[in-house]
Description:
Distance between the termini: 35 Å
Helix content: 10-25%
Radius of gyration: 22 Å
Number of helices: 6
Shape: globular
Mean pLDDT: 92
Bound molecules: flavin-adenine dinucleotide
Order of helices and strands: EHEHEEEEEHEHHEEEEEEEEH
Strand content: 15-25%
Amino acid sequence: SAIQADEVDVVVVGGGQSGLATAFYLRRAGLVPGRDLVIVDAADRPGGAWPRTWDGLRLFSPAGYSSLPGWVMPPWDDATRGFPPRDHVVDYLTRYEDRYDLKVLRPHRVDSVRRADGDPGGRLLVTAEGLALAARAVVSATGTWDRPFWPTYPGMRTFQGRQLHASDYRVPGELAGQRVVVVGGGNSAAQILAEVSTVAETTWVTPRPPRFLPDDVDGRVLFATARARIQALEQGREHAGVAGLGDIVMVASVKDARERGVLHAQPMFSRLTTDGVAWADGTELECDAVIWCTGFRPALRHLRPLGLRTRGGHIPVGGASGTQALEEPRLHLVGYGDWTGPASATLAGVGPSARAAAAEITGR
Ligand code: FAD
C-alpha cells in the first residue's frame, strides 16, 4: 500500500521535555525545525505530561537544578524553599519551545512507526491521523504518563469504593471527609498523601518501608547518585546506590505531614474487600477510596509495527549513545528511565542522552 508521505530527515515523536531536549541538539547540529526536523505531539498544549499531573505537584529539586540544555529554568522562590510547582515547569517548557522555534505539530497522536515496504535500509514511516512522514531517523520520546501501572490484587473488581491511579488524581477536595488508602512508597505517594491527609482520613501502605532523604537533601543528590551508579556498573564495579530516584524528598508538604503525624507507612495489604482492604493476618480496614501511586511504564505502543523484541517491557538499546534500538538503528529512544540513560526521565537528567542521540543521528 503506497502512502504519500512527506520526506523529512528526523521525526521526534513526543514534544515533552525529552523530545524538546533532543530537538535542541538536532537543531544545534544544523537541522531546521519544520523542514528537516518534525516534532509531533499527541497533546493539544505544550508541557508533556506536566499539565496533566495533580495541581499541587512540586518538583523535588530547585529550579536551577531542573533545567534542559541551553536555558536554565527561571528561579522560583517562595516559602517552599524554592521547589517549583507544576505550572512553573509547564511555563518553562512552553517558553523553551518558542525560544528555539521548535515548531511542534500538535495534536497528532502517532499510531505507527514502521519500515517502508521493501526498503529495509530506507526510511521509517511515521503515521498519525492526518499525517504521514518518511524519516531517515526517528526519536521516540513519548514518556510514561500514558501508561499508568496498576498492580493486581485480589478483590480489586469487587471493591465498591473508588479506585484511582495517581495519574487520575487532581485535587484533595474531591476526597474531602473520606477514608482514603494511599498505596506506594515513592514521591508521588508521599506528596499525594501529604495533601489528601489535610482533608481526609488517610492510611499509607507501601510494599517496602519507604526511604526518606534527610531534610536538607533533595533531587540533586538523586541525579548524582543515579549517574555514579551507572558509571560504576559500566566499569564493572558495585555501587550501593545510597539514594535512588524513588527515595522521598522532604518537600514542604511532606514535612508538614510528618509534623501532623500522618507519615507512617503500613505494610502492603494482601487484598481488597467489598468495602475496604485486608492484610494477610486478617486485619481489615474500611475505606471509601484507594489511590494507586504505583508508577508508570514506557508508552511504546506506536513502535509495535516494527516488531522489535522487548525485554521486561523495554526495547533493548545501545550504540555509542545508549539510546539506539539494537534491532533498528534508525530508531532512538530518549527519556524513558535509566535504561535509556542515567536519570533520563528527569528534567536535569535527560540532556546527556538527548545530546548523544542527536550526535549519533547527525554524525556531528
Ligand atoms: P512526557 O512529559 O510524558 O512527554 C511525552 C509527550 O509525548 C507528551 O506530550 C505526550 O502527549 C506525547 N506522546 C505520547 N505518546 C505519543 C504518541 N503516540 N504520538 C505523539 N505524541 C505522543 N522529574 C524531575 O526532573 N523533577 C521532578 O520533581 C519530577 N517529579 C515528578 C513527579 C511525578 C508525579 C512524575 C510522574 C514524574 C516526575 N518527574 C520529575 C519525572 C519526569 O520529569 C517526567 O516523567 C517527565 O514528564 C518525562 O518527560 P518526557 O518528555 O520523557 O515524557
